[in-house]
Write a structure and sequence with these properties.
The N and C termini lie far apart (about 65 Å). The chain contains twelve helices and two strands; from the N terminus they run αααααβαβαααααα. Helices cover about 40% and strands about 0% of the residues. The protein is mainly alpha-helical. The chain folds into three domains: about 70 residues, no CATH class; about 90 residues, no CATH class; about 100 residues, no CATH class.
């Protein structure tokens, strides 16, 4: 009988030495390696690891455990295991679903490419309670170049140190232009949208600073856990009750501006009934888009007592 825990000779793959960038997720590292070989994330994982370890890892690469795929990844990439551990999520509940971790900051990508680095995805961008870039203050956008298995594909020229100007990626150029407008305070243009956006950023920053939604337990204190549960509970209830035609701010009259629709949206999927003690699953199942999460954060900021300087 074939030993599923053994690595076949054909899978003893040597990878180019890599360096984890600040805040990078493990799935981002694997995606970069996969593209260097011209294959998908799933194919690379199954080439690197025995079948069982590969199957377990593909459940969530960002939360690989010691002794499984993480050890194999350290060995084949030349990265110290302790360094990989720093980038690993200790829990995945506060993160969006694996195949929906497509949020990115265009300005961060632009700076990465300008410095000669391959742009990479930060673990923070996968947080449910974070829809803006903590560095630049702009909204997170959706990266559209994604394979069916979740591989986030980047332009090949970025792997060769090319700059950020990529005519073949008009969506990136458009996102970058919009992101700069938010970062420099030019956007949002409408007063009610600007007010709502500022509230969302400050509310998310307050939760972030207190550790609510932090994927690593070691960085979350007791107050953060208590606040996190309260936010999750309220979000799950709102997910159940909200309807698609509802606006994210009470002052809205008539049709919402196109700018507001792009920033916030209550286009939720059908939600499951929320139990007495709701779970992350109750909330993640209905909130699929960044715009929907952002609208939810705005509504939560209206319901909770909070203060952020």
């Amino acid at each position: 009988m074939t030993d599923l825990f053994a690595t076949p000779l054909s899978r003893r793959l040597r990878l180019a030495p890599q360096t984890l960038m600040p805040g990078e997720s493990i799935s981002s590292l694997v995606d970069r390696q996969a593209q260097l070989w011209g294959i998908r994330r799933k194919d690379l994982v199954y080439q690197m690891a025995p079948i069982v370890d590969g199957m377990l890892a593909m459940r969530d690469l960002d939360a690989c455990r010691k002794g499984d795929f993480l050890d194999i990844c350290a060995q084949k990439t030349g990265i110290e295991w302790a360094e990989l551990e720093k980038h690993r999520a200790a829990r995945t509940e506060p993160l969006v679903r694996v195949k929906e971790r497509n949020a990115y900051c265009p300005i961060c990508f632009h700076e990465d490419a300008s410095a000669g680095y391959t742009p990479y995805f930060r673990l923070d961008w996968a947080r449910i309670f974070l829809t803006h870039c903590r560095i630049h203050g702009c909204p997170l956008f959706r990266w559209s170049q994604i394979s069916a298995d979740g591989t986030r594909r980047l332009p090949h020229k970025w792997f060769m140190g090319a700059g950020p100007e990529m005519p073949v990626l008009p969506q990136f150029q458009q996102d970058f232009h919009l992101a700069r407008g938010y970062a420099y305070g030019i956007r949002p243009k409408k007063l009610e949208v600007r007010s709502a956006w500022d509230t969302v950023r400050r509310f998310e920053a307050w939760l972030y600073d207190l550790g609510a939604g932090e994927p690593n337990y070691r960085e979350t204190d007791g107050r953060g856990h208590s606040l996190e549960w309260e936010v999750m509970h309220r979000a799950a209830e709102l997910t159940r009750d909200v309807i698609k035609s509802e606006y994210p701010w009470e002052e809205a009259v008539g049709e919402m501006s196109s700018e507001g629709q792009r920033l916030m949206s209550f286009a939720f999927a059908t939600a499951r009934p929320v139990a007495e003690r709701p779970t992350w699953r109750n909330m993640r199942g209905a909130i699929r888009s960044i715009a929907a999460r952002r609208a939810m954060m705005y509504r939560l900021s209206m319901l909770m007592t909070w203060r952020h300087e």
